[in-house]
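Board notes (copied after class):
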Amino acid sequence: MTELRIGVTTRETRHAASGDTRDAISRDWAGFIGAALPEALWMPVPNVGPTAREYAQRWGLNGFIFTGGEDYTGRSVRDVTEKGLLELALENKYPVYGVCRGMQFFQIYFGGSLVECPGRSHVSARHAVTFVNTGKEERATVNSFHRWGMRADGLAPALKPFAITDDGFVEGVNAPDNRLMATMWHPERESPFARGDIGRLQALFLS
């Protein structure tokens, strides 16, 4: 079996004192990846823009996690970095998991649209989701830290929903023609980690 080497994308932050831009990742990811994929090697990927594809190839990365963070604009160095990584993954059928901003990024990349969630219903909140298209109906309560989401009628054609909120937002998708999955909730922020989240990550990266 090929050794699994996962690249984890990083958010851009600006240091208040120096004013320089830094790449950052939550420490929670170390715990979640360790729990779900203990044999995998993983590394944060800096936002190197147009050289991201070559960077990933030099390190032999063959899977990616697109983490949450700032809103997508299409113009940031992070957007360019993640676009290069996603294209590399799609061409090589590498597994890719997107979280929150990562799912928004996939939606836009594949031609879908985002809508603003009403009020603060999805900001620092918890809510239920119903799992669909899985053979049996199940529900779970998940965390929520976003202002922008997507509805089924605006979902990109390449994406298939598997989790929907009671107020009609799609919060879990996969791409049947590619090894791609995304959720709007953050599995790395749960304590303890949810068995369903661990199972989905294992199914994506170990299949």
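Comment from the instructor: Helices lie at 28-36, 52-58, 77-92, 101-109, 195-206. The longest helix spans residues 77-92.
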